[in-house]
């Protein structure tokens, strides 16, 4: 009897040790940085702590890519990775950094706005940790699929009720949601410090227009949409009309004046920039999805969403073709470029921007994401 207890105890210990080591290594692997291979117009890679020192040495510090043309002009800033579980925003940022040829003005790209959120997955969501593309040269480029919010290891505990910098009360977990924390607090939580750092970057770089790239689940009402502050609504309208001519349908929504803490509201209220937020449809973060894996992230094909569409429960069309990442990145890329072109109607010639070589919707759908990713060094 005694001996068999001992055997059981040893077995339980061994299994526990295996689980601890295996999951430990798996969690740790999320701290390996994503590789971005800068393209021809990247003149400088700064850190967010260059704009706000309080972020130095923290998990919230993140790269800021400055793309600059020969000819002086205006500045546009945009973010990917506000929510690291929305890959199209992050991949659009990567696409610009690796491909853009800026002829005039500056485009400032922060690909991983909440970098801490890239080091974890959301609990109980079964999200994949990574997804990959194959480049034209046959290399594998892998990127992390993160969590919606700042890693709790970097900011804990959550309060029962979060009172954001505009005195709005939100549920406690929103304290780690970057897009509820604007305009940030220099002496606040890590997420509020990141928000403050982004505000400082917008102000110090004199960004005329600033864009925040997101995705949402297909059952969410604001999707395939732009949300614009009253300052930027005319600019966004011109961009939406131009996209319509290219057969890309984007809905335009006016930023509600009481949506304090969100980029499309607070960036405009606390700086001179004209803010726009953009959304695409990502089934891998939806509530009605079926199996959650890398294929769902990349192809956006999901039989349960096809069913939900037939029942009239969705705000986007959804058929067997799904919503592949090429379509979602393509919408973002074409939209950012349409906004850049529309700036010509609202700003004097010395403040406009000219950029080329960034693939838009049609190119991405035809050739795939991998063909626009650079070969990694080594
Ligand atoms: Zn989002």
Describe the structure.
This protein has 378 residues and is of the alpha/beta class. The chain has a single domain, classed as Aminopeptidase (3-Layer(aba) Sandwich), CATH 3.40.630. Helix content is 30%, strand content 20%. The chain has 9 helices and 13 strands. It has helices spanning 2-29, 87-99, 190-204, 233-245, 263-269, 294-299, 303-310, 325-342, 361-367; strands at residues 42-47, 63-68, 71-79, 101-110, 130-134, 140-144, 161-163, 169-171, 209-216, 225-228, 251-254, 274-281, 354-356. Strands 1, 2, 3, 4, 9, 10, 11, 12 and 13 form a 9-stranded mixed β-sheet that branches. Strands 5-6 form a two-stranded antiparallel ribbon. The protein is globular. The termini are far apart. 51% of the residues are buried. The model has no long low-confidence stretch (mean pLDDT 96). The structure holds zinc ion. Zinc ion (ZN) binds at residues 82-83, 86, 214.
Let me know the average pLDDT.
96
Q: How far is the first residue's CA from the last residue's CA?
A: 59 Å
CATH architecture assignment: 3-Layer(aba) Sandwich
Identify the overall geometry: globular
Number of domains: 1
Please identify the top-level CATH class: Alpha Beta
Poorly predicted spans: none
Number of helix segments? 9
Structural class: alpha/beta
Major sheet description: 9 strands, mixed
Short description:
The chain is an alpha/beta fold. It contains nine helices and 13 strands.
List strands and helices in order, with pairings:
Elements: H1 2-29, E1 42-47, E2 63-68, E3 71-79, H2 87-99, E4 101-110, E5 130-134, E6 140-144, E7 161-163, E8 169-171, H3 190-204, E9 209-216, E10 225-228, H4 233-245, E11 251-254, H5 263-269, E12 274-281, H6 294-299, H7 303-310, H8 325-342, E13 354-356, H9 361-367
Parallel strand pairs: 3-4, 3-9, 9-12, 10-11
Antiparallel strand pairs: 1-2, 2-4, 4-13, 5-6, 7-8, 10-12
The structure holds zinc ion (ZN).
């Amino acid at each position: 009897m005694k001996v068999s207890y001992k055997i059981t105890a040893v077995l339980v210990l061994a299994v526990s040790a295996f689980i601890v080591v295996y999951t430990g290594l798996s969690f740790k692997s999320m701290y390996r940085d994503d590789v971005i291979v800068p393209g021809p117009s990247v003149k400088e890679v700064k850190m967010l702590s260059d704009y706000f020192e309080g972020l130095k040495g923290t998990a919230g510090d993140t790269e800021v890519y400055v793309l600059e043309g020969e000819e002086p002009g205006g500045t546009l800033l945009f973010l990917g990775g506000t929510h690291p579980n929305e890959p199209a925003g992050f991949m659009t940022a990567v696409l610009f950094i690796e491909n853009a040829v800026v002829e005039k003005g500056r485009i400032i790209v922060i690909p991983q706005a909440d970098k801490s959120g890239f080091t974890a997955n959301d609990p109980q969501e079964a999200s994949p940790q990574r997804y990959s593309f194959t480049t034209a040269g046959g290399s594998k480029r892998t990127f992390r699929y993160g969590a919606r919010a700042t890693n709790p290891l970097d900011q804990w505990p959550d309060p029962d009720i979060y009172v954001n910098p505009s005195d709005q009360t939100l549920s406690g977990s929103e304290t780690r949601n970057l897009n509820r924390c604007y305009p940030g607090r220099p002496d606040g939580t890590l997420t509020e410090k990141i928000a403050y750092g982004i505000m400082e970057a917008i102000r110090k770089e004199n960004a005329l227009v600033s864009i925040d790239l997101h995705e949402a689940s297909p059952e969410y009402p604001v999707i395939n949409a732009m949300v614009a502050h009253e300052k930027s609504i005319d600019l966004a309208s011109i961009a939406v009309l131009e996209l319509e001519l290219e057969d890309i349908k984007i809905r335009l929504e006016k930023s509600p004046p009481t949506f304090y803490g969100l980029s499309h509201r607070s960036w405009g209220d606390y700086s001179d920039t004209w803010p726009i937020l953009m959304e695409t449809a990502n089934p891998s973060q939806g509530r009605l999805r079926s199996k959650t894996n890398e294929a769902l992230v990349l192809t956006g094909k999901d039989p349960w969403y096809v069913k939900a569409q037939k029942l009239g429960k969705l705000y986007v069309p959804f058929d067997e073709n799904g919503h592949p990442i090429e379509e979602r990145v393509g919408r973002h890329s074409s939209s950012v470029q349409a906004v850049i072109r529309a700036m010509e109607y609202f700003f004097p010639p010395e403040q406009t921007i000219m950029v080329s070589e960034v693939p838009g919707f049609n190119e991405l759908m035809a050739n795939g994401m991998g063909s626009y990713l650079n070969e990694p060094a080594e």
